[in-house]
């Protein structure tokens, strides 16, 4: 098994917390119990993790998953790969978003309403500023149904990033916003 992001998450969780069961490890990492089992077996076989036996009570035996020195070294190497991978993803997202916003701008849409989570709105604003794009984010709301309550003359287009499964025609019909003023962010 090639070590993956999930293997890094397991090693990282074991380095950060005292974990005594695979179920706990699954909860800490967000990885399914079956995958945790598979990854742990591989890490145990490779000598990166060991099982420690800690007796707190003579009648009860407590086990703990522990990183070995090899596991700590591997975790450090994987951390670098993990960070580089996430930064590459982040930069690709920024580039794709800048391209998307440039296309919208070239269609003459300058004042944009944003529909979606605040964190994505802030990310979008930073891409606009960083790339000196000729668009401005104005009003915003969390989901497209709230567009009905916003003056449609206050924006040239609406950026949709609320995860809605509704089609653009349905959104246009329901809100009264022309279809050509609605743009999915992705």
Choose one word for the global shape. Answer: elongated
Structural class comes to alpha/beta
- Are there runs of 5+ residues with pLDDT below 50, and where? none
SSE order: HHHEEHEHEEHE
Strand % is 15-25%
What is the CATH H-level superfamily of the largest domain?
Answer: Winged helix-like DNA-binding domain superfamily/Winged helix DNA-binding domain
Mean pLDDT: 90
Helix content: 40-55%
User: How many structural domains?
Assistant: 2
Rg over C-alpha atoms, rounded to the nearest angstrom: 24 Å
CATH class of the largest domain: Mainly Alpha
Q: Looking across the biggest beta sheet, what order are the strands in?
A: 4-3-5-6
